[in-house]
Amino acid sequence: MDPCPFVRVTVGNLALKIPVASKPARSVVHPSSSPCFCKIKLSILNLPPQNAVVPCLPPDTQTLDNPATAATFHLSKSDLDRLASKSIFASRLCLKISIYTGRRGTTCGVNSGRLLGRVSVPLDLAGTESKPSVFHNGWVSVGKGPNKGGSAAQTQFHLNVKAEPDPRFVFQFDGEPECSPQVFQIRGNIRQPVFTCKFSFRTSADRTQRSRSLQSEQGSSRSWLSSFGSERERPGKERKGWSITVHDLSGSPVAAASMVTPFVASPGSDRVSRSNPGSWLILRPGDNTWKPWGRLEAWRERGGADGLGYRFELIPDTSGAGIVLAESTISLNKGGKFVLDLGSGSSNRLGPISPGCSPRGSGDFGYGLWPYCMYRGFVMSAKVEGEGRCSKPAVEVSVQHVNCTEDAAAFVALAAAVDLSMDACRLFSQRLRKELCQQSDLVG
Description:
This protein is mainly beta. The protein has helices at residues 77-85, 87-90, 207-218, 405-424; strands at 6-17, 36-42, 50-54, 56-57, 69-76, 94-101, 114-122, 133-142, 155-165, 168-173, 182-187, 190-201, 238-239, 242-248, 253-261, 263-264, 278-286, 289-301, 307-314, 323-331, 336-341, 378-384, 394-398. The protein folds into two domains: 6-165, C2 domain (Immunoglobulin-like, Sandwich), CATH 2.60.40; 168-436, no CATH class. 10% of the residues lie in helices and 39% in strands. This is Formin-like protein 18. Residues 208-243 are annotated as: Disordered.
């Protein structure tokens, strides 16, 4: 499989040194009491701005120890080609950072904070598809000169701006997951089939048959799936038993997503609540059976605009607890992206680094090194459509996290589970398409 070229622009190592005024003044920023943050935008390209906290350092600080990434922008080959074809724009491409003081509110504080200054860093991305480039690393003065408090020193802002190659495998479902579509790998104008998907139902009535089917597919004496707890059997409104298996072109199953906790309407309502989410297990073949790789929980968020809330955790091949890699929301109306990105300032990032190990083929999941081997940076994204729209998920997976076919298939199965969760979390007063309903279903 040949990857598509992508470029990752990162902004990090942020810090402020604000001079102390020689005499008190209400307009002077006091670093010990005034939090600072910035708004980061990549001009020309239609990418949403990102926000980040900026730590304040004492004016006499000589060294900087803040390697954290504050923002990340991902540029596809089409973005780069568009810039290159318009030289007037290519020469003007720059990173713009506005620095504020004040606490961030519900809108990240951009309108309520007081502007300290702006920084602009020109970017020339030519050649960054194949080699990294650093555009700025160090201190720069911001503001309009000496502070009003009597200090002749200017505020200093530190940042690191660089671009690096970030090649990815790009996959596209040829239809909605419940319609058992093919999955193509996309590279430029080339579409090559790499997987097929099989959607099916797994209920208490046919669990034994499903178990036998998996045993036949894997050549195993038992099915891991049948031994993983039990489904909640509840009366009333529920959607349960959905399963999708990903096969390679030889017909061998290489990943699966199975609904292990039904999506159940909360008492007195038509919605799946956060307090009682449905869940999927993402499975990979190993040791002649299915093994758990990840767990996806999903629910319907309340609010001004309904959203699909989700939480994804990686499951170690031990008795240890899972590691949460992402928790965020996708618009149920407009759709959006499910993202695993452990190196940016994105909203689904839960910490500096979340540990995990990329599964390997041959049944060796690599968890013997847990938690020392980790997913880092961009891992994957899956674009899905909103409710009532035809959704053919587009999946991007970082090359560094794909060592074999099973690696890519696991991410494809995860993308299918996210897309199917959009349907599983529909209000129970709404009818689902026939592919998602069994003949005995009276719900939907």
